[in-house]
Amino acid sequence: MTVFKSKILDISTRSRLILLNAQRAEQLGITTHDRARLMKDELSVPAIVNTSETFVAPDEVGVFLDTAKELGIAEGDMVTVNLLPPPTSVQYIRKKMRGEKLAKEEIDYIIKDAVDRALSDIEVTAFITAEQYHGMDMDEVEALTRAMVNHGTKMDFERPVFDKHSLGGIPGNKVTLLIVPIVAAAGLLIPKTSSRAITSPSGTADTMSTLAPVDFSASELKKIVTRTNGAIIWGGSLNLAPADDIFIGVEYPLQIDPEPQMLASIMAKKLAVGTDYLVLDLPVGREAKVETPEQARSISNKIIELGERLGMKVKCGLTYGGQPVGYSVGPALEAREALLALEGRGPSSLVEKSTALAGLLFELAGKAARGRGQDMAKEILASGKALVKMREIIEAQGGNPNVRPDDLPVGEHKAEILAPFDGYITRVSNRAISAIARAAGAPMEKGAGVVFYGKEGHKMQKEEKMLEIHAERESRLEEAYQLALKLKPMTLEGMLLQEIPEL
Amino acid sequence: MTVFKSKILDISTRSRLILLNAQRAEQLGITTHDRARLMKDELSVPAIVNTSETFVAPDEVGVFLDTAKELGIAEGDMVTVNLLPPPTSVQYIRKKMRGEKLAKEEIDYIIKDAVDRALSDIEVTAFITAEQYHGMDMDEVEALTRAMVNHGTKMDFERPVFDKHSLGGIPGNKVTLLIVPIVAAAGLLIPKTSSRAITSPSGTADTMSTLAPVDFSASELKKIVTRTNGAIIWGGSLNLAPADDIFIGVEYPLQIDPEPQMLASIMAKKLAVGTDYLVLDLPVGREAKVETPEQARSISNKIIELGERLGMKVKCGLTYGGQPVGYSVGPALEAREALLALEGRGPSSLVEKSTALAGLLFELAGKAARGRGQDMAKEILASGKALVKMREIIEAQGGNPNVRPDDLPVGEHKAEILAPFDGYITRVSNRAISAIARAAGAPMEKGAGVVFYGKEGHKMQKEEKMLEIHAERESRLEEAYQLALKLKPMTLEGMLLQEIPEL
Prior knowledge:
Two copies of one chain form a homodimer.
Chain A: E1 2-9, E2 17-21, H1 22-27, E3 35-40, E4 43-52, E5 60-64, H2 65-71, E6 78-84, H3 88-97, H4 104-115, H5 121-134, H6 138-150, E7 161-166, H7 176-185, E8 190-194, H8 204-208, H9 218-228, E9 230-234, H10 243-254, H11 259-272, E10 275-284, H12 293-310, E11 313-320, E12 328-329, H13 331-342, H14 348-365, H15 373-382, H16 385-396, E13 413-418, E14 423-428, H17 430-439, E15 449-452, E16 459-460, E17 465-471, H18 474-487, E18 490-492
Parallel strand pairs in A: 1-5, 2-4, 7-10, 8-9, 10-11
Antiparallel strand pairs in A: 1-6, 2-5, 3-4, 3-6, 12-15, 13-17, 14-16, 14-18, 15-17
Helix pairs in contact in A: 3-4, 3-5, 4-6, 5-10, 6-11, 6-12, 7-14, 7-16, 9-16, 14-15, 17-18
């Protein structure tokens, strides 16, 4: 146990770190990445040691701002530092690395330490890659899900909670903006939390944010749904299953998504808000997250079993995911299309998919007989009740309830891609459309995105507009346009796809 | 491309980081762990973005001291920051994660980026664990070895270079302190670079450091061996295969040592100093790194094949590794035992092992006929020439050439473990001895360690001293003694090993 003077540093780090003088650390037999307990009065936290040659003096310890706040440490305060062995959870991570099954207590330790930021990036990566290589059985996935819920905020709405989740990967998937008001209009509680885009041009939270604020605390969410039965908010401020963000921080740069983690991630966020009935939308198709119906059925069976273990009734709906949903991609463009659909002016593919999924929730709830849910959803949509409900939700979240589709701030800079000859559209590439919309500025620039004037099977005339790119800035438009010329996001039958050698 | 004002931070980070204001980064569409290129005038480096709420202002970029020095950036200098895609090498890491074979150019990219600190801990961990799970074939191991050498300092002694390596894991293995002077006394060049202990009570560099300084640059090493033919130095300042340290930084906390990485690590350090002839000591036994002769033969065959591919002649010697080497463990205690052996007063097991390995080098060199090398080594040792050579080496490295075994500063605080009854020693545990010596303060406290008064097969009388613990501080002695009572590092035939339930 050694006493140090605190020096506060405001740098955000994923693991909880403290900074010791390099020479002093060597004298104490402490090396970078050793563990230590930082103590101030009765409060203490474990931390990972980093060292600096000159930034901290031999008698100083660098404490990062969030840790300083937590322990009530001010600049210059005396604190103590104790060398610790690595946390027990590191042993369990190594056990999974050897391919052994983990007990639920072992998984709980890992999640607790991850949330406490007591694990280094190295250890979190080792855990996620071990899941990727060795998999987990359903006992482990259940334990993982429960641990992720337990080490985070849990909500209780004191009524049955309905929810919907899309497996993602498909640009333009604005169905949540239809499903939530349809379901809420039927009197069911649907407090939908969504994510912002990580790799896509618009997450549901990004799209909704063009209509109303989406950043709320747990108590604010409760107030909103008490008034309206429904909400569409960003889940980031609720601290639901916070381990998930830590794991995503590793999965994203490595572009991996181990199945046990994917299952636990979906179900933990639902369990944390007390979901009783869940419909899972599984888009299947080329360049979707799930490419074959077999894979989709396998995931469905696992999600349903996991739901049973967690006391949640789940229905999975396989949907066509081989091209974008609807005719627009990008936050404001998608919100506009969703509003148009609520007004009865939406594309039939969007309406069909949204009402089909809402209908499954009605059937789960016993509100509609098996096979009759979609009709009920379509009636609510056609009656205008879903539109009224959406305006209530927008108002409850602090947006303008009278917003019109044309009010939405779509990027002014536009470029068009025309059909080079007469022909049928054979393909609209999810991946290329996402890349072009992101190049145009989505999701950060809300008005950026892509509008299609045809989808697979449509007949185009030569020189007819196939695609329109919107951007808020001329420079992004040019970048997106050049990318569109290169990626050829829409294919006409007979189109030359590549020349070899390329010019 | 955005211009920022520099703010210099002296914190050592394993990856090369820059720090942006969190709000500004969000506006620019940059998130934590994105890549950016930091530029000052014509110089630039890639870096990984971290963000801070308040430590840097929106118009500032935090630059860590080593990067600032490299690019010649002073506090307040204007620099530019460009968003970059992840380095190509991340694609190759993902390729290995999928279990595919990597081309040599792909491996070279990974090593280059690791050494440039352009990879995050997440990516380095993903690479090492992928090696662990998927393995590598000999083409990949060769490419890995060459890449590790090429991205680091290479030495050329303009004469045939001889070298020796022990696979490690055995406490008390001070054979290098005998082999180097024996081989150098025969006129062969043996510039031995060693490591400090990571998990053991004393690395060869720690042991040698009680006799002479061990921290030298490449040019200083050349000067030393020009005078003496031999040296025993710490390899850490030479920048030989620097990727190795980066990988060890991941392997150590996870306690893994993937075979391809182990092979490349050994051979890269040898190739970098231009080794032509190598003897590899493979201790085999319980609690050694290699536990079975089959495993040792498999590693030997791979090392020999790798040597052939690299133009290096290799002989492997399997040695008994089921208990510590000699009768002492800990830096000063081991140096004392090595000096005694050079004076002709060492234990025969230590002399046998050292001369056997030195003899293999003589046979490789053509200095001795097959089967006659050990005799030659024993003659050199018995003649006193090895002792004279060792004193030359100590002097050339700046130590006291007249040092006597009793001059070495052995810890004053001592505790003994006595034999509880008459009996034969059936086991001396490598792992327990290491743990006790480390608890006593080794390797940081040079005088700390353990001395045995018997090894496997020795007959002990009741109350006879079996083991002595040395420490520089009373508190460490007590800790080590309590650990020794718990771990029972030496076993007598018939000894009760555990009581259940334990008290």
